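Changelog-adjacent note: as of this version, every example in the card shows the full chain rather than a window. The one below runs 390 residues end to end.
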Amino acid sequence: MTQRKVAVVGVSLSDCGRVDEATPYALHAQAARRALADSGLDRTVIDGFASAGLGTLAPVEVAEYLGLRPTWVDSTSVGGSTWEVMAGHAADAIAAGHANAVLLVYGSTARADIKAGRRTGNLSFGARGPLQFEVPYGHTLIAKYAMAARRHMHEYGTTLEQLASVAVQARANAALNPDAMFRDPITVDDVLSGPMIADPFTKLHCCIRSDGGAAVLLAAEEYVQDCRTTPVRVLGTGEHVSHTTMSEWADFTVSPAAVSGRTAFQRAGVAPQDIDFAEIYDAFTYMTLVTLEDLGFCEKGEGGEFVAKDRLKVVGGDFPVNTDGGGLSAQHPGMRGLFLLVEAVRQLRGEAGPRQVHRPDGHLPDLAVASGTGGWFCSSGTVVLGRGMS
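Full-length structure tokens:
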């Protein structure tokens, strides 16, 4: 059976940042409507639906709220990498003819809920199963990332200043994004002098908390001619799960992106050096650094030097990363992986405005990678995208 080509044909964000009056369902609907309008297709073409993180039966509840009756669904939930993993599943289903058009949608009022007292900040994901062996020691999700960062610093001499430079460059990119939640410039000293959250992470090493939603519509190649936007083809995807308990993580300096990235590049038939820019999950500065290493953009242990050279900036950098400002400055309403795909597609289409990436020859970028991380480096999903359908 001939495999169909698959393209992202519609992307959008809901209102993001400080959204006090909307429900998570409303943000799902807003993002979905906007992505559908972006595509130019009729909602009747959607026969696949993917959702996670809301309700008791996420793809059933949210699909009903949106008035959809899909014949293909996915509710994979692996944290922040959920959406890259789901995009891979959706692309495979469309390629095989099991669905024609799949909508991925997410929405969260994480910031507004805490502000209104509807929830509190969670210190632990639970105390059952394997997690029960770690919970008594009291380390939080943030502390788990902090321990991994400390190990990289011990193993390879990575410095606090290098980690801080990731946050500084993310903020520089956010300054070019009118929709970013925080746009004022920051310095390495600003990052280092902030309140300590979990050693070595001060406040600005950590992602912001926002409200917001996103939606991505994927479709088979025969629908592309009816779309109003430049198609962005899904070239290759990969996924990998590593561990639940930190004691089962073989090496704190290697993320699961080392596997998912290698798989995605192989399936796409490209190499890291072919990629024009990257969108990387950045709940903490260390995630950006170690994921760049594990995707092959620099050697293991060289991430600190790589990021310290201001290479990640849209303006002045030679390898832009998190071009919208990322979770460190733009928005982070929870499982942010879907936002990576939206930004990558907008960049490949040439729709990013002041933060638009260009190749050295002045042309629009041809290839991008979006790589999401879930849990505490427990899972990874990587997607390679290319402009056009050739």
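Structural remarks: The radius of gyration is 19 Å.
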